[in-house]
Structures are given as structure tokens and as C-alpha cells.
Write a structure and sequence with these properties.
213 residues, disordered C terminus
Amino acid sequence: MPQTKKFGHQKRRLIRKKTSVCVVSEKCDVSSSKKKIEKSKGYFDYEDNFSAESQIRFVIIDLNMLNDIFNNIAKCRYCDRSFCFDVTENKSSRKGLASSISATCKYCGSSHGSMTSNSVPAGYEVNLRFVYGMRCIGIGKSAAQTFCALMNLPPPPAKFERLYTPIFNALETASSRSMTGRSNKQLQHLVECELCDVSNATASSSIDELLNS
């Protein structure tokens, strides 16, 4: 028996074209710290100092090794002699993990000293990083003292708890900045994917106003 064709109205389905947004991260290294402290602003910039783009600038080094490095590569600029330096720490000028290191010539007595960390409005950068790191892993001053003793490091800053305030303020600022950025990206994504009703002129104008604000 021959097949008969059925005529009638067929439902059409509107398949909306999907658009995908590919986000390529410009950060090629997942480590810990864009961050230099913005001294002019007077606060510790969390976002800049703990991003993946920042280079590793803090290392643990034995003072004896540092003494060998000085004597192998440097000459005294006053007496022009080599292998003449004594590298020592001035313990009276120690500020937590920030130490005062000096290199003194054995022959002419000339000396040059420097702190081992940058100075920031809240103290020293190494102390801020140390306190922040301890808080991130859930330990406080007592455990930090034990860690420093076992590592033969200077003791942590005496005003350990006082550094919580600038760190928490920086975290709050970074969190607010991140939330604002994400909101703008989500609105932009809605427009690009045509998920909002473009026929509604009021909604469209309000989104444009939000994006431009």
C-alpha cells in the first residue's frame, strides 16, 4: 500500500546561536605575589603584592654564605682591597624578621649597612607577608615563634596582632574591587550572549548605563 504524506503545520524551533567567551589568562605562573607596596597611598596593596606576576624577592640565606659572596665579588671602594669584609647583623636594630645587615672592611673600617626588607607604612614588608601567611594557614603568634626558633630565624614582630588591621583593610579593599570587576564582566557577558531582551529599550539603556558608570 503506497505511503501517504501528511500535510499540516509544522512547528519551527528557533535555535539561538550560542556564543562562547574564551578567557585567556595573561598570568603564566601560579605562584604567590603584582605587588609592590604603594607607599604614597599609605596602605598595603594586597592585590599588587600577592599576585602571580610578582617576582620572588625573599629568600632565606645563611649569613656565612652572604659573607662569602661579598668577599668573592666585592672590593672596598676606599682601600681597594679584596676579601676584606665582615658581614654581621646588628641585633639592636632588628625589627621582627627585618634585620639590619652591615659589611665592614677589616683594613680601613669602612662600613655599609641596610635593612633586609622594604619599609612600608605599617612596618616592614617581610613582617606583613609573614603575619599574613601565618593567618592564611590558621596559626598565630605562638606558632610563629616556634617556627622561627626551629628555622633559626629572628623572632616574629613583637606587635604581631597589630599587623592584622592593615592586612584586613587591604583584603577588604581587594575583595570590593574584585566584586565590582566581576559584576561588570557578568553584565558584559549577558549583552554579548544576547540573554537579555534587546527589544526592551528600557532594560537595554539601563545596562549600558551600568557598564559606563
